[in-house]
Amino acid sequence: MMFAAQSIAEFFSFLGGWQYVVAAVIHAVLLVHVFALSPFAFIWLERKVSGRIQDRLGPTRVGGLFGWLQSLADGIKLVQKEDLCPQAADSMLFRSAPYVVCVASFAAFMVLPFSHGWVAVAADCGLFIILAILSLEVFGIIMAGYSSGSKWSLFGGMREAAQMVSYEIPLAICALVPIVAAGSLNLGEIGGMQRGWFGYWFLFHDPFTFVAFFVYFVVATASCKRAPFDLAEAESELVGGFHTEYSGMRWSYFFMGEYASMFAVCGIASILFLGGWNTGIGPIDDALYAARNAGADGTGSPALGYLANVLGVFVFVSKASFGVFVQVWLRWTLPRLRIDQVMTTCLKYLVPISCFLFLGAILWPLALVTTLGRTTWTSGPLGELVAEEVRENQVTRSLSAADVGGVAVRAAEGVVEKELVR
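The chain above was modelled as a monomer; its predicted structure follows.
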């Protein structure tokens, strides 16, 4: 697969031998800005959305009329704050917990494809890898709650750990529902299968994937510790929860990890259900696909292929950012639930519903085959791709069987000849 750095190098091919140096520098700068500064953008978004919902303006002073530099100013302020460690705390665990949470959240971006081929690690089991990486965040939360030496932090950490571990079960099951339709765990391949009109998105593939999207979004919101599931930060009960004793930059690392996780789970939803980097408009997607392929195989302009991927990144980030916006919107719309209500909702309702959706996604193609004679109720790139792949696999299996049979016959003839010679 074509990586972003290689695409940038092809774009600057006129520089000769310096094209890879320039591409590496630009790629590093882009990674820093996308991964490190994206939480600041989402913090600004939450402040502005919260202000509008509460009938106020939000940040307006720092950075001009819209206050877009307020997050940067707050970051400078947090850097200048003293790094305190409580006397009763376990110093090593207390200081390392924020890094565990932050690294686990940002590491998920390695497997998340932002456009066609623009992914750091193009793994065949990318979905399982990204879910496993995100689950490591719970270790940092337990470390923070246990090592703080405060009962508020301990109770908050226990609550949050129980909630995250419980909600990871329906999260993974709902993510597997479109996997059944796609037949692949590679996130890049899943995004490519949804090229064309928006009717080819897995959101509209069948009734089970449609419902699974909304269940996934609810479960992902709870997994990210967002309202109305932010029980670890219930001020009336646990003060600040597991990060009560933290201050300065270590305190900010928890929130950077939270916003990174929000973008990651919304990015997964975009890939699995909403077409990923595809616009949902057939002619545009076909033109962008042709431009990417022409730039990759050398038959077209590399610059045009690079710009097509840039547009794909913009579409993907827009979809994921809209998901983050909805999560912020829900914070000021729904009241906070109790801990027993949260756990009951997960174990008694969401887990059985997700299992039913997964089973329905498996049986849906069988029902269509018996009634309509096909595995999907729409004909398009997905159906054609699956049919072509099935034909290729059948041919491969036939050739392999013939080759094995021929080898066996030739081996048997050789043994007989040797025996006759003897």
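The chain has two domains: 71-377, 379-422.
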